[in-house]
Design brief:
Structural class of chain A: mainly alpha
Oligomer: heterodimer
Shape of chain B: globular
Number of strands of chain B: 32
Structural class of chain B: mainly beta
Largest sheet of chain A: 2 strands, antiparallel
Distance between the termini of chain B: 73 Å
Number of strands of chain A: 2
């Protein structure tokens, strides 16, 4: 259902973009990202809102640790009041999966290596699109790459990993929870490494899609939420906490200067957290007072 | 409130609790990692494997049939009962073990081109009779193209004999033959095979003619001119001696040309990926007419019977065209692509489709006279010898069918290339 339209779209774009399959993949990726732009905006806003709610949710967890029913009721109340759907940010991610799978198969089928696969391609091309029949078979070379096979050099794996890292940086929201900070830090490195590793086995056409998709995603995210995460790029430093803020107040992270050091990094120290919460509330209210 | 109701209510409240637990873990960060693993498994399981299988035709020599299997082996079978007499595995890269080109016979020499990029030369002088059988002798094999390169350049075409005796016997030269082979690197190679009774054979490259795309079209030789198509959309006419075009320029179509051209009374007949079937003047390359009725590509070579052209298409139809005007006389429809050329047996046309049916239709009007259902794709060329058709099926079998005088089809024998299936019980296909 998804593969045939993809195949024909790729071949049609190939006929438009100078019979160059690399440029075709770039164009295809940009079109996909543009089509998903409304969902991407929604996802970003949902993520921001979710992050803003974390301190309050943590309070509820602590307050009603022994009362599961009350805890759940209060949690749903918080979500409802904030107008946040806890699984709302799943949408774009879920849509990406069939695209990845479909694109993987489509690339292998539009770049047939054997006579059998070329005959198979003939059955998938739309007869009412005459231009797609004229450009077959597609040339698979792009720069140093054969887009039907993995990159023989480590270039694309590195590009995929690096672009994914930037993407992760842009979409990671500051949090006060030390445990979540630790998780975020782990995912910041794990995802790029995993994708970079998988790139060594997948066709380089798919890897090219990932690189372009990540770069476009970084640019989109930058315009939606700002470029702060990139300007404060420091590979070995955690993002400082920023808690109990409304959606409007979230901005570049600032360091704690109240002398309260968190020596229990990663552990749930209730007293330390509350003290930090108070300090942040004081800073936020001072900011509001200055503005008014 | 009953205990059951209370329990149910308390369970319902688990749902937001689960959501809370997951959200507190920033599951949007953890989930991608799990999902990537799932996607990898899915992609690995559902991946399209571009492994070559091959669809070589058969060639008959006395009481023996030589053909290729889907496992990339050349086999010799008893023509009467399908018993295997001998097999040969290609010597090249194991990932390229497939045979697409039909073996070519020239006297007692058999030529085979493999998808592994090699040309093989066999002496079959003592391999014609199962009752007095000696295995064929491999005289020589050579990688076509650059033999020092590690790259595999597949060959899909059959070797075409250019000259069966190119030696100058007055100078005491050894016997030699000239062949032409198209290659995936876009070149058509002219190879000289010198036959030495003591050392066997020696293959050397004489010429190469470049095209802009892979050459999957068997060269057809007539009157010192080789005609072949290329995936660069063009049909070429090249002088065998000069290695140069004999037309001002190659004839360009709107799509790739895989079908081998058919020569008929000064005309070149062939189909293209643009869905057109062309007739050209063989001397000038000028277009005489074209038929534009097909809904998909032409893949296989057309056959000619009198003034009737039989052109199979991947749209599943066999078109019967007037050889002089290109007008449509009749058409037979199937549901699946027709990848191979039809065969002519007296007043019948025999052809096979990916729908697994071998059909016998009248040459006059295309009416169905007989059929046999194999339920496997049939993509190999149909080899005809004395009203017996030899073909390979998608289940890696080689089969022989006889066509009666009324068009009825009977299965004569079946050879299973897969040893596991040889002893399995099965009914006769027709």
């Amino acid at each position: 259902m998804i593969i045939e339209p993809m195949i024909n779209s790729l071949v049609l774009l190939y006929s438009i973009f100078f019979s160059n399959f690399g440029i075709t993949i770039v164009a295809f990726t940009v079109l996909i990202r543009l089509a998903m732009f409304p969902l991407t905006v929604k996802q970003s806003r949902s993520l921001k809102a979710m992050t803003a709610l974390q301190p309050r949710l943590k309070e509820i967890q602590t307050k009603y640790a022994d009362d599961r029913e009350r805890r759940s009721q209060e949690t749903m109340k918080v979500y409802k009041t904030a107008g946040v759907n806890p699984i709302g940010c799943l949408g774009p991610m879920v849509i990406q999966f069939p695209i990845w799978i479909g694109l993987y198969r489509a690339i292998l089928q539009v770049l047939p290596a054997t006579p059998e696969s070329l005959v198979g391609l003939s059955e998938r091309l739309y007869s009412w699109l005459p231009m797609v029949h004229e450009v077959v078979p597609l040339a698979s070379r792009f720069l140093w790459l054969d887009l039907a096979v993995p990159d023989p050099y480590p270039v694309l794996p590195v590009l995929v990993g690096a672009s994914m890292f930037l993407m992760q940086k842009m979409t990671t929201m500051p949090t006060a929870d030390a445990r979540q900070q630790s998780t975020n830090q782990m995912m910041l490195w794990m995802m790029p490494l995993m994708f970079g590793f998988f790139t060594t086995t997948f066709p380089s056409g798919l890897a090219l899609y990932w690189v372009v998709s990540n770069i476009v995603g970084v640019v989109m995210q930058g315009f939606i939420t700002g470029w702060g995460p990139l300007t404060s790029l420091n590979l070995f430093k955690r993002l400082p906490g920023q808690t109990n803020t409304t959606v409007e107040d979230i901005g570049p992270a600032e360091e704690t200067t109240d002398g309260e050091r968190d020596t229990d990094e990663g552990r749930n120290n209730g007293r330390g957290d509350r003290a930090r919460l108070k300090a942040t509330r004081r800073r936020t209210s001072r900011r509001r007072n200055r503005r008014s | 409130m009953s205990n059951t109701s209370k329990h149910a209510l308390s369970t319902i409240w688990l749902i937001p609790d689960v959501v809370l637990s997951i959200s507190s873990l920033h599951w949007t960060r953890v989930l991608p990692a799990v999902t990537v693993v799932m996607i990898t498994v899915i992609l690995a399981a559902c991946s399209v494997v571009n492994r070559p299988e091959g669809w070589a035709g058969a060639v008959a020599l006395n009481e023996v049939v030589y053909t290729g299997t889907k496992e990339g082996e050349l086999v010799a079978l008893n023509r009467v009962n399908g018993e295997k007499l001998w097999h040969f595995e290609l010597l090249g890269d194991e990932n390229y073990q497939a045979i697409y080109g039909t073996p070519t016979l020239s006297g007692d020499i058999l030529y085979l081109s493999g998808y592994d990029g090699h040309l093989y030369v066999f002496d079959v002088s003592k391999s014609k009779n199962p009752m007095d059988w000696y295995d064929p002798i491999l005289l020589d094999s050579r990688k076509v193209g650059d033999p020092l390169s590690d790259d595999v350049i597949p060959i899909v075409t059959s070797p075409a004999i250019v000259d069966e005796d190119c030696s100058d016997s007055e100078d005491g030269d050894f016997p030699c033959q000239l062949l032409m082979i198209g290659s995936d690197d876009g070149n058509v190679y002219t190879l000289k095979v010198t036959l030495d009774s003591k050392s066997g054979a020696y293959i050397q490259e004489e010429k190469q003619f470049p095209t802009g795309g892979k050459v999957w079209s068997d060269p057809i030789i007539q009157d010192g001119v080789a005609y072949f198509g290329s995936l660069d959309h063009k049909l070429y006419a090249v002088g065998v001696d000069t290695g140069r075009l004999i037309w001002n320029q190659p004839f360009e179509t709107g799509g790739g040309v895989v079908a081998s051209p058919t020569l008929h009374r000064g005309k070149i007949l062939f189909g293209s990926f643009d869905g057109n079937f062309y007739a050209l003047d063989s001397g000038t390359g000028q277009e005489l007419w074209r038929f534009s009725g097909a809904d998909n590509w032409y893949w296989a070579a057309a056959k000619v019977a009198g003034d009737l052209i039989l052109a199979p298409s991947l749209d599943g139809k066999l078109y019967a065209l007037d050889a002089n005007t290109g007008s449509l006389k009749w058409v037979v429809k199937t549901d699946k692509p027709i990848v191979n050329s039809p065969a002519i047996i007296s007043d019948f046309v025999v052809f096979a489709s990916d729908d697994g049916r071998l059909r016998v239709v009248s040459l006059t009007d295309g009416d169905l006279e007989g059929a046999c259902t194999i339920e496997e794709k049939i993509r190999t060329p149909l080899t005809v010898d004395d009203r017996v058709i030899y073909l390979g099926a998608g289940d890696n079998t080689i089969r022989a069918f006889s066509v009666g005088s009324s068009g009825d089809v009977d299965e004569e024998w079946i050879y299973f290339a897969d040893e596991d299936k040889r002893n399995a019980t099965r009914g006769v296909a027709c």
